[in-house]
Design brief:
single chain; 396 residues; alpha/beta; Alkaline Phosphatase, subunit A; eight-stranded mixed sheet; six-stranded mixed sheet; 12 helices; 31% helix
């Protein structure tokens, strides 16, 4: 018998909670997004609602400014990742019982000329850049040139991504999307296998005023197997994707989708879905932590965004029904105090709450993000791929 009618999962994109056991393989030993945020804010990181849910309790050392809850509202723990990479795609797919076991291609020295030549021929535009770079810095360096020439700024990062940036007034967003769709067709394997092609439109008159817009679009590798979303959909359970969820899964397994302009816009969408009467699963991604603050190594902005989310979490807790389950987690880390500008291999938080819970406690350390997906399937009595281990019975 179904325990919860509606399950909501909020992914705080990149909000890791300490170096994972295999962090040495990624040169990420010592990373700790939440811990270092607390230290950077000198105890001024105030997260009362996430704190009540057990955000500090799940750690070996409490987050500075976020005390352990003496009586947590629900259950808390953390999850380790088994996927080959530390990208958003890897994390989200693994949550949905489809770990990425084959390493994707990375391009620390830029993309092969033969690949770029095909994009140039298709688009009729030259390519500039072609190196790993911070998105904001490469706009400072090449944005004005792009505006003058109409070229495409192509760059990558420590993740398996091919990013194409263009000024919206020089290359219309629809044209940029069309170019990215073509680039996506070139990197689905076997020669090149890239996780995401990302359209990065921007606006502004000059390098001192360039701003990347909410028209960003991720063209992800299509899932190479069934996910929790597919299994639920096959059993006539309603599935909702908020934020870049639709992009990450290429629309597969999603009935109702919403694009976010910002974290707060995403929470507005969640507030709307909370008013809907359905049986199923709502999957929310809030990307600002990662895109605006983690990669830019801005702990102050990151902390402010977390505190804004915490306030909205309080509003969500107040309207949840007895047969609702809310889980809050992350897809990887992106420690804004760490070296470089890339994601960090970390544990991610796992918080679970329902107004109907009679007990609270620890869910321990989960061996894979897939335990979250296994729990969702277990709740709806749906058979999946058996990658994860359900903790539904522990939620009492």
């Amino acid at each position: 018998m179904t325990k919860y009618q509606r399950i909501f999962v909020i992914v705080m994109d990149s909000v890791g909670t300490g170096a994972a056991p295999d962090a040495d393989k990624f040169d990420d030993v010592g990373s700790d997004t939440l811990g270092h945020l607390g230290e950077a804010l000198k105890g001024e990181l105030k997260l009362p609602n996430l704190g009540k849910l057990g955000l500090s309790n799940l750690r070996d050392n409490p987050i500075k400014g976020v005390l352990n809850a003496e009586a947590p509202l629900g259950y808390y723990g953390k999850m380790a990742e088994i996927s080959a990479g530390k990208d958003s795609m890897d994390g989200h797919w693994e949550m949905m019982e489809l770990p990425v076991t084959k390493p994707l291609d990375y391009f620390p020295n830029g993309f092969p000329e033969e690949l770029l030549a095909k994009i140039e021929k298709f688009s009729g535009r030259k390519i500039i850049g072609n190196r790993p770079a911070s998105g904001t810095k490469i706009l400072e360096e090449l944005g004005e040139e792009q505006m003058k020439t109409g070229d495409l700024i192509v760059y990558t990062s420590g993740d398996s991504v091919l990013q194409i940036a263009a000024h919206e007034e020089i290359i219309p967003v629809k044209e940029l999307y069309r170019i990215c769709e073509y680039a996506r067709s070139l990197v689905n394997g076997p020669e090149y296998l890239i996780g995401r092609v990302i359209a990065r439109p921007y606006i502004g008159p000059d390098k001192d005023h360039f701003t990347r817009t909410a028209n960003r679009h991720d063209f992800s590798l299509e899932p190479d197997g069934k996910t929790v979303l597919d299994y639920l959909q096959e059993h006539q359970l309603h599935t909702v994707g908020i934020g870049k969820i639709n992009d990450i899964f290429s629309g597969q397994g999603i009935d109702e989708g919403y694009h976010n302009e910002s974290n707060m816009d995403g929470m507005d969408h969640l507030d709307h879905v909370l008013t809907e009467d359905f049986k199923g699963f709502c999957f929310v991604n809030l990307v600002d932590f990662d895109a605006m603050y983690g990669h830019r190594r801005n702990p102050t902005g990151y902390a402010k965004a977390l505190m804004e989310l915490d306030e909205r979490i309080g509003q969500v807790l107040a309207v949840l029904k007895d047969d609702d389950l809310l889980m809050i987690t992350a897809d990887h880390g992106n420690d804004p105090t760490f070296r470089g500008t890339d994601h960090t291999r970390e544990f991610v938080p796992l918080l679970a709450f329902s107004p109907s819970m009679k007990e609270t406690g620890s869910l321990g350390i989960r061996k894979t993000f897939a335990d979250l997906g296994a729990t969702i399937l277990d709740n709806f009595e749906v058979k999946g791929s058996d990658v994860g281990t359900s903790f539904l019975a522990d939620l009492k």
